[in-house]
Amino acid sequence: MNARPAPPIPTLLPTLIPYESHRARRVAVFAPPWIAVPPPAYGGIEAVVALLCDELVARGHDVTLFAAPGSRSRAHVHCPLESSQPHTIGSALYESDHVASALDEIDRAARCGQPFDVIHDHSGFTALAMSARTGTPVVHTLHGPFTKQTASFYARHGHKAHLVAISRSQFKLAPRGVRPVAVVPNPLVVGDWPLRRDKQDYLLWMGRMDPVKGAHRAIAAARMCGRRLILAGPVQSGQQEYFARQVQPHIDGKQIVYVGEVGGQRREELFAGARGLLMPIRWPEPFGMVMVQALACGTPVIAFPEGAASEIVIDGENGFHVSDEPEMAAAAGRLQQIDPVRCRESVAERYDVSVVADGYEGVYERAIREATQQTVRIDRHRRLTSPRRGDTKRVITRPAALQAVER
After folding, report:
1. Structural domain count of the chain
2. CB 74 within 8 A of CB 84
């Protein structure tokens, strides 16, 4: 069987729609209901949402953020639920309650003559599944990987919104029939991260204690090269056994140090001071914010080139691609070859929030334009097929596709 040809990967849309041509828009942003925006420590999607909302407001857009209680933003913040739910991530009860309540508010705004121009969904699956029920165009960011289960979901519901991939790797893995309209990466404000040229003598691994993140492989590489390794990140529900079996026995407080979950200034200091960040993942991770944050601090990354790591890390320029733990250990001895300033530049060029906001403004304009064109087509068809006054013999037959759109 011949493999289907890979579809071309769209570029960031600001190259198609310059920022100067954008109108100020009324944007509803859906964050997940689990963790406040910005997150107090761990929370990748929440950090992305926080930065994007603030940048959109700074550009003159009227932004309303629907997020977990305790959220703060330059946008108008609405918290549909009474409390955040950090220990029930993925619960259909809370996600559906959060999204349905937000959609109710959007409907009320439309009835009051203050409709939103576009909904930007980061909340999970419910909003996408229900997006055909709202008259407002929906942009849905693909924060998670395509698995067997999610591929089936997106095959059924992906056409209801404008899908945005966060890396070219993720775009390439989109299942048959699922077509993201753009690749727009996750952002950071490069200037908020401290650049440090003089590094301390330790390697860093940061992430949640999930086997796919590879803390045990980072430990193995560090022991091979005799370097000190600092591990940072939460042990979440379901990860206790892995941590107890494959990580905790190696923690000695000297060569292998575990500092738990970190945020704020402590997180920045760890990134900035590290000789290098280890990224020994063995799965096609759609992005990898820790790599971008480390690079912004001038810290090179040694990564297995899986998923977006193959794009974020430019081999020999801001870090190294390696195939296994022995190669990772060997690359740790070559980190002095990497220029910290170039590490930071490689991030500013591709992932600064200004670049990302440009991309999303282009996606919003496309979504709004297509929704407007669809409304015009429907109105025109209704006028052409509606019976003329007094004409009782005329038979009206609407195409099935149009009936589906109208429903």
Report:
1. 2
2. no
